[in-house]
Amino acid sequence: LGINKLGHSTQSKNSVDQNEKQRKEKHLDTVVQKNKSQKVVYIYSKELIQICDQMQKIPCRASMVHSLIEAYGLTRYMRVVEPREATEREVNAFHDLDYIEFLKKISNHDDSEKFEDEATHYGLSYDCPLQLGLHKYATMSSGATIVAAECLLQETCKVAINWCGGWHHAAKDHASGFCYINDIVLGILKLKEKYDRILYVDLDLHHGDGVEDAFSATSKVMTVSFHKYLTGFFPGTGSLEDIGIGKGQYYTVNVPLLDGIKDTEFTPLVCRILNKVKETFRPEVVVCQCGADGLAGDPMESFNLTHKGLGKCLYFLLQWNLPTLVLGGGGYNLSNTARCWAFLTALATGKQIPTEIPDHKYFIEYGPDYELEVYPGNRKNHNTAHYLRQVYGAVLNNISKICTEKC
Ligand SMILES: CC1(C)CN(C2CCCC2)C(=O)N1c1ccccc1/C=C/C(=O)NO
Ligand SMILES: [Zn+2]
């Protein structure tokens, strides 16, 4: 042992330093580990974006969303997790085998005309166009949602985001409303492996019929959809009277709304209803579909919402501090959809982002203002205070019939 002038053994001195160093590293490690576990998971890969870019009705939307999120530097505050394809077994947990087999078969034929009749049988026409690589797209976007759900199961994160998911219309045996495989149902089935009470919230302009139908007879999954409800508007379901069946009665909530609703009416209505849902259903995990086709400026020209209105709804849910799966969905004004989902991503990571759109590949799409904000239009709001009070009263009345105590 070396003896320094103070008579302390230098070895022990070094070992003291050594221990100090190790202790510091260990502490740092736990801090990082904790942050890691608290970090938002962001499902992304070049392949996923490249495949989703090819979707006819939303060309390059996936790239625009991801590029804006990256340009705002948000990816460095998240744990980026690569997706994988959903396995056949996972897809068949909800979808009928014959439908999926057909989807696979015609996805790789460019002479799909000869399957015309069968295609129509499976909803594969008009709004759900056949296109090459369709099956790969559907299994990748749903695999991404499943991986996001797995991250929540492993408790390696509190929030997991998949902007390439949210395809809420897909039925077990047919495509519908531009949705082919219902990634949301598959994600919820994955979460059911661990959680007993799952809350699904659908903020898209359209009724989340595919998810509602999958769970309308169970009290384990509560589906709450806020949507435009008007004769002749797709999908035509989701009325106030649509409250679930059997054991699932009252565990389906529908909030039918009319054209022109603004943040000032939408957000308080959503938050008050979700507050009542939290009290009675006591969810353990939340899945939120953030379809952006209700935004002002969307070609659907229906609601008059902004990114702030949707943001306050998501923020309200995140305050519950429950594991939360955040998904995309509709959104046909591509730059507004990217603005909204970049804003929601920033909100989930707790980061402020500037109004100025940062320079990046799609910068030109954000003209003429090149700002993050989506501004409300001045379209007529058909939702009278009286109408909203009626809807709110009926919905609260139904929810109050739920009890998750041992009753
Ligand atoms: C084909 C697309 C999806 C595109 N689109 C518009 C947007 C702008 C130009 C065409 C529609 O109305 N669609 C639909 C057509 C039939 C049935 C459903 C939808 C949309 C569903 C949806 O968004 N659910 O959340
Ligand atoms: Zn929609």
Structure commentary:
- This protein is globular.
- The protein contains 13 helices and eight strands.
- By secondary structure, the protein is of the alpha/beta class.
- It has helices at 10-38, 46-52, 61-71, 88-92, 97-107, 116-121, 134-153, 183-191, 209-215, 263-281, 307-318, 334-349, 385-399, and strands at 40-43, 78-81, 159-162, 198-202, 221-228, 252-257, 285-289, 324-327.
- The model is unreliable at 1-7 (pLDDT under 50).
- The chain starts with 9 loop residues before the first helix and ends in an 8-residue tail after the last helix.
- The structure holds ligand M7Y and zinc ion.
Largest sheet: 8 strands, parallel
**Order of adjacent strands in the largest pleated sheet:** 2-1-3-8-7-4-5-6
Tell me the β content: 5-15%
- Count of discrete alpha- or pi-helical segments spanning 4 or more residues: 13
Rough outline: globular
Number of separate strands = 8
Secondary structure class reads alpha/beta
Write the H/E string, N to C. HEHHEHHHHEHEHEEHEHEHH
Q: How far apart lie the N and C ends?
A: 72 Å
Q: Give unreliable regions as ranges.
A: 1-7
Tell me, rounded to a whole number, the average pLDDT: 93
What's the gyration radius in Å? Answer: 24 Å
Distinct small molecules bound, one entry per kind: ligand M7Y, zinc ion
Please estimate the helix content: 40-55%
